């Protein structure tokens, strides 16, 4: 596993991001045959996953894609929307999305910027921490499947 070289305060967003990146890179280096993760469910605290929950292969690909986004930045908005929609965006959908954005911006404009920042900052901190735990779990489960100890 890679060691963090930068020193930031414990709850600093950069610390959380660096930890996620290190754990996700480690997961990618350890998981040599991702197809072994297909149809393997993520167990949470010793309990079985709910039916219909994504398998570890889906978690692996999601965590890998998010790591690339965190490392290299986001796609421009139009490219991201085209990617999500599979390149089949329709004019009516775009109009509805633009109307929703305008309403959303109006509501957010009323909120205090500091409150908005705190909300998004804490949400991102929570999400990155959760993704780090998922990446560690995928790595642990893969090593378990391969018969190796972590």
TrEMBL record:
List the keywords (alphabetical): Cytoplasm, Nucleus
Q: Which GO terms describe its molecular function?
A: molecular function inhibitor activity; protein homodimerization activity
Q: Which Gene3D superfamilies match?
A: 6.10.140.1610
According to the UniProt record, one GO cellular component term is: nucleoplasm
Q: Which GO terms describe its biological process?
A: regulation of triglyceride biosynthetic process; response to bacterium
The answer, when asked if Oxidoreductase is one of the entry's keywords, is no
What highest taxon heads this organism's lineage?
A: Eukaryota
- Protein name, as recorded: Thyroid hormone responsive
What gene is it encoded by?
THRSP
């Amino acid at each position: 596993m890679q060691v963090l070289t930068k020193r930031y305060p414990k709850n600093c967003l950069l610390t959380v991001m660096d930890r996620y990146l290190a754990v996700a890179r480690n997961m990618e280096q350890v998981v040599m045959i991702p197809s072994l993760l297909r149809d393997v469910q993520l167990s949470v605290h010793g309990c079985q996953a709910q039916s219909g929950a994504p398998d570890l292969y889906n978690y692996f690909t999601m965590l890998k894609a998010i790591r690339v986004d965190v490392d290299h930045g986001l796609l421009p908005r139009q490219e991201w929307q085209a990617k999500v929609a599979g390149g089949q965006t329709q004019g009516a959908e775009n109009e509805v999305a633009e109307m929703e954005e305008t309403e959303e911006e109006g509501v957010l404009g009323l909120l205090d910027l500091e409150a908005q920042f705190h909300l998004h900052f804490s949400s991102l901190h929570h999400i990155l921490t959760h993704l780090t735990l998922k990446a560690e779990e995928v790595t642990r489960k893969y090593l378990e499947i391969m018969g190796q100890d972590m």
